[in-house]
Amino acid sequence: MCGIIGMMGNGSVAGSLLDALRRLEYRGYDSAGMATVSEGSISRRRSEGKIVNLANVLSQEPLAGNIGIGHTRWATHGVPSEKNAHPHSNDRLAIVHNGIIENFAVLKRELQDQGFCFESDTDSEVILHLLTASLTRHGEDIPRVCADVLPRLRGMFALVVMFADREDLLLGARHGSPLALGFDSDGGGYFGSDALSLSGLADRIAYLQDGDWALLSRDESSSRLYGGDNDLKELRTEPLTISSGAFGKGNYRHFMEKEILEQPSVWGDVLAARLDPQVRRPRLPRLPLAFRDIRTLHITACGTAYYAGLVAKYWLEALAKISVDVDFASELRYRSPVLRRDDSLAMCISQSGETMDSLEALRLYKRSGLGTVAVVNVEHSSIARESDVVLATHAGVEIGVASTKAFTTQLLTLACFAITAASERGYMSDSDADTAVSALSCLPGLASQCLTNLLGGDENFLHATQVLSHAKDVLYLGRGVSYPIALEGALKIKEISYIHAEGYAAGEMKHGPIALVDDTVPIVALAPYDRWFSKTLSNLHEVSSRGGDVILFSSKRGIAHAKESGIDLRASIELVDCASVLCLEDTYLAGEIGVDKDLGILDVMHPFIYSLAVQVLAHDVAILKGTDVDQPRNLAKSVTVE
Ligand code: F6R
Questions:
Q1: At what angle are helices 303-320 and 482-497 packed, to 10 degrees?
Q2: What pLDDT sits at residue 593?
Q3: What structural domains does the chain harbor?
Q4: pLDDT per position as a tens digit, 135-178
């Protein structure tokens, strides 16, 4: 939610500010702006819409100056417009803000009574005027100004402030929303919302903690970091390892396409990092509670990460006999959950590690005394830092707003967690653990095969994308481990194609949603040939006999079985048969295996393959519809507001 950047160097900064904003654009893209100081005065350029519009403005009216700040916005208060775009400035200072100032209305009235005029409808503008009033009272004593103003701001903020008369100084402050600072070896100092924004600029980086504020100079030794109590803190930077190359789109049309297709190699990276090659078992850090002592695992997350948690619930309950509850973080934090610290562990799953609801839910777990595990992609994120143990998902940088490789690497990390839990609790034999690890090791190869088939012009798949691109409503159905993937598939298509879609547990259709079915509502069925297959097939007959157009994703055997049963399929898309790859064809004989049987390794594999299918489906439908795949309307990648 909003990206902010600040920098000072030895040459003009406008070009670097613009590049950094491009790297931050995933955080919001409804307007953007920047301001610089030159010869004691502040100049500003802003525009509604994406960074490309700001770039056009800058090419007409360039900005000079060796110091500057920039912002890319995801609107909270005030419509997306040039007037509401940041920086907000006057002749003394300019500010950029990420977050929400919850008490802005009270502060605004107070400032208006003092004679301040507001130019925008944003909450952020109160910060500009509060700082200006305080500077007038306290002169150049910036620590005093911070002590005066920052405690008055309720809500969340990451701020960067630039002063017209100080070309050697930027002020940054963090309360809730993330902020990092960095330095290069040539006399450049930087603030940015994340490490990616500073990549290619800074060599060394430090992350501000909640309540910190910093006075940034061109070099590390004369910069100062303060805590919330205004006491000086040690400023400890570390090398910035992320390369600006990680940001590139290569020859792909979109980041989402690149990130989908990267999955075979990224899954290989995850397995290389997670599996111990000597013992061929997952390598996990020591948990706050030993696996054998865990009775309940509480998982919290938002959106796609929540669906990863739902898949893990199936795995952990069946394989490791751990009771698992999975909560939307935004709900959990305002409920009164019953949490027992002695035999429970908490887990927070988040790609960015900065999602505000997830972070607050994690804090709730911690206040209840639970040990915490973070499953995160961004290892320096707030959620990672505040958790007892971090399981990094190693997805690499994910830029596309719709999560793809971040989701499947969460699944892979959780699969390793489930296998370890099952072994250590004595529910998985050594030979079954060997099979499980071999199965995981097959996944990168299977992913390549699956993606090649889907992208290779499969007529059924092309037909399915055509059907969906004309639909107003779509239902995604799945049972068992495929149910969360149905939810994820529906979310993906909603996000990037703006088609109304819902995911349902196939068995739930008859309890209400079947009323929606007619020949205008395509049904995407995710039905691997597994223990649930025959049940799902019966549910598909129920919708098909009511005029529903069924698009079936299954393996060769599943499709054959469905056709034999006489169902009318609009399209059938064949996905790789994980059972035949592992020579486990006899494991599931649809209709013969009871649903009460324990989950097997194939149920760990299927969610990966079916996730790829729903990702490519959503992507290709979005292409047909001509929507903005990487930057869908109204969304931003890192949701740091409530
Ligand atoms: C959907 C998507 C979102 C995120 C959610 C949580 O494609 O990306 O639903 O999964 O906003 O974000 P993180 O994982 O960063 O906490």
A1: 170
A2: 43
A3: 3-247 (3.60.20.10), 248-428 (3.40.50.10490), 457-630 (3.40.50.10490)
A4: 999 887 888 999 999 999 998 899 999 999 999 999 999 998 88
Pocket of ligand 1 (CB under 6 A): 302-305, 350-352, 355, 358, 402-403, 491, 495, 638-639
Which residue has the CA at smallest separation from atom 8 of ligand 1? 403
Query: Which of 30-34, 127-131, 201-205, 396-400 shows the lowest per-residue confidence on average (mean pLDDT)?
Result: 396-400
HSE of 320, CA atoms in CB hemisphere, 13 A: 30
User: How far is Cα 337 from Cα 358, in angstroms, rounded to an integer?
Assistant: 15
Q: Ligand 1 pocket test: which of 302, 330, 354, 641 has the largest number of ligand atoms within 8 Å of its C-beta?
A: 302
Nearest to 380 by CA among 578, 526, 588, 239: 239
What CA–CA distance (Å, rounded) separates 117 from 234? 39
Q: How far apart are CA 560 and CA 73, in angstroms?
A: 51
The yes-or-no answer on residue 494 being catalytic is no
Paired tokens of 156: 């969340």
The angle at the Cα of 222, spanning 219 to 224, to the nearest 5 degrees, equals 110
Q: Is the pLDDT of residue 348 over 60?
A: yes
**Whether residue 323 has pLDDT greater than 90:** yes
pLDDT at 594: 42
The per-residue pLDDT for range 438-454, each reduced to its tens digit, is 999 999 999 999 999 99
- Would the pTM count as exceeding 0.70? yes
Residue-level length of the chain: 642
DSSP 313-376: HHHHHHHH--EEEEEEHHHHTTS-----SSSEEEEEEESSS--HHHHHHHHHHHHTT-EEEEEE
Secondary structure element (H or E) that encloses residue 56, with its range: helix 51-60
For the chain, the distance separating the N- and C-terminal CA atoms, rounded to the nearest angstrom, is 10
